[in-house]
Amino acid sequence: MTAFFLALLGAALVNNLLVLLPAGADAVQTRPAQLAVHGPASALLIALATPLGWVLFHGVLVPLQLDYLQLFGYVPLLAGLAWLTRIAVCRSERAAISLAREPGDAARSLLQAGAALGSILLAQEQSFLHALAQGIGGGLGFWLALKILADLLERIDHSAVPAAFRGGPLWLICAGVVGMVLLGLQGLAPQ
């Protein structure tokens, strides 16, 4: 049980899929209004996809000696789960239904599936319990990093920022600051 908790904590804070790993980097553009849909949908997608990807790899591909086709198996899994998690989150939050129909949301869901793919690939050589902890912790950590970045960008929107730093440069600076904060937790990772 201690290994599960350490893997969960490590996936959420230390090996964060958004800040410390390049998976799901498109999600940095999420604003607080969009976070009502994108945050929970991404967290649910990662939490479901990681153990299911592990089962697909170890339960289907390895026994059939098709493990070299792992990415071709993960893409339909992630596309279906991205669609299902978006529907589940939008139905659970009535106010978020209008946000889910914005142009480009389907593409954003598939791009955020990159974080889930990264989580699957990180956990596929571990045990199922570790994959489950990686999925839950990775999803919660992804949502936490999105929330921190959205709050930071919201504060900056209400302050005087030079024109040269507005937009992309400021987003990169904010992501770097959040990454440095999470790098301070690097010693917590289980060896």
TrEMBL record:
Major location category of this protein: membrane
Record's keyword annotation contains Cell membrane: yes
Topology of the protein relative to the lipid bilayer: Multi-pass membrane protein
PANTHER family: INTEGRAL MEMBRANE PROTEIN OF SOXR-REDUCING COMPLEX, ION-TRANSLOCATING OXIDOREDUCTASE COMPLEX SUBUNIT A
One Pfam family here: Rnf-Nqr
Compartments, as annotated in UniProt: Endomembrane system
Organism ancestry: Bacteria, Pseudomonadati, Pseudomonadota, Gammaproteobacteria, Pseudomonadales
Protein name per Swiss-Prot or TrEMBL: Electron transporter RnfA
Organism: Pseudomonas turukhanskensis
InterPro entries: NqrDE/RnfAE (IPR003667), NqrDE/RnfAE_oxidrdctase (IPR050133)
Alphabetic keyword roster: Cell inner membrane, Cell membrane, Membrane, Translocase, Transmembrane, Transmembrane helix, Transport
Residue intervals passing through the bilayer: 43-64, 71-89, 170-189
GO cellular component: endomembrane system; plasma membrane
